[in-house]
Structure formats: C-alpha cells, structure tokens
Amino acid sequence: MSAASRAPQRPNSTRTLRSRAVRIAVTAAAAALTLSACSSGGTSGGGGNTNFITGSDGIATVKKGDRAAAPDLSGKTVDGAQLDVADYKGKVIVLNVWGSWCPPCRAEAKGFEKVYQDLKGKGVQFVGINTRDASADLAKSFEQEQGVTYPSLFDPDGRLMLRFKKGTLNPQAIPSTLVIDRDGRIAARTLQALSEEKLRKMIDPVLAEK
Question: What sections of the protein cross the membrane (predicted)?
Fold first, then answer.
C-alpha cells in the first residue's frame, strides 16, 4: 500500500462541513430543550438588557415599547399544510411549544383548546409548534385525542427555536407558551404548563391593548 493510499481522506467539499455544522447546532438545541423538557415550571430574570420582568406566577412580560419582534415562523404543519405565523399579524397570537410525549403538554391541551374556542372570535389565533416527535402521525394522534383544532407547525428538530434571539422572551422548555401582540412582537412568555386561568391571565392584557 502506498503512502498516498494510507493518507486520511479529507472532506470532498465545504458543503459537507457546513452540513455537519448545521446538524451539530440542531442537536445542541435539541439537547438544551431536553434538559428543560416537561418541567413543571421555569424562571427567568429581567436583568441586563432583557427588558422583561417575571412575576411570581412564572409569567414574564415586556412593556409595549420594549418588545422584540417574533422571528420568521413558517413551514409545514402536522397536517402537511403550509403555514406562516406572519399571516396572522393584526391578531393576538398564542404560540404553544409542545410534544405528544410530554405529560404537562397533555395536561394543558384541552384547556388551551377551550380558551381558543372562547377567544378566536375576538381576534386571537392559537398556533402550536410540535417538536421532538419522531413523526407527524404521533402529533396528529395527540391532537385528535385532545380535541385540538388549531394548527401546529411540525418542527421535529427544534429548528424554529433557533430563530428566536437570545435575551428575548424565547421558548426554552417544553411546554413553553408565548403571546405575540398585534404588531408581531413578543409580549409575554411562560416556561411551564398552564391552567385555563393562567392562560387567560397571559392573553387578556395583550388583547386589551389598542
């Protein structure tokens, strides 16, 4: 065997390196979510330049003038349809990150559907982000069992989570719930499962804004 044939082979293109980097980043993001997945609660501070305050109820809020814009959140739903959250601008959007494998997500699902039915005629749109499910069929089965009728983006690798900027009210656990105001800016967040009462408490102040 020649020295040349024994030499280690180099990647044949920069595309291979980029692909590996993307896979590593997505895996790291999924691992971070795994560490906080299905927690019963979460805390976050408003120190530094974050501009948000977390109450004793675990709900973090931002004053209207200090809110960050929600990132591009678009893609296929668990039903295979195309969805772009930006199309709902002008409505208050409730964004819920969930997985069919997550017991707290199961505990809150029917309450979310009830509040959605109560508020959808008042300019409120619910959107889910289903993550870390191995197939869309698992997510669809969950929705059918829980009676969930609002759409959910299918995000098995957590790529949509990577679009939220650090230092903003970004989802950091499963479940997480965000309220986005009529201008497409993130107004409130919680990193825990919510009762109907707490969910309404998150939505009502943003819905009352003019």
Answer: none
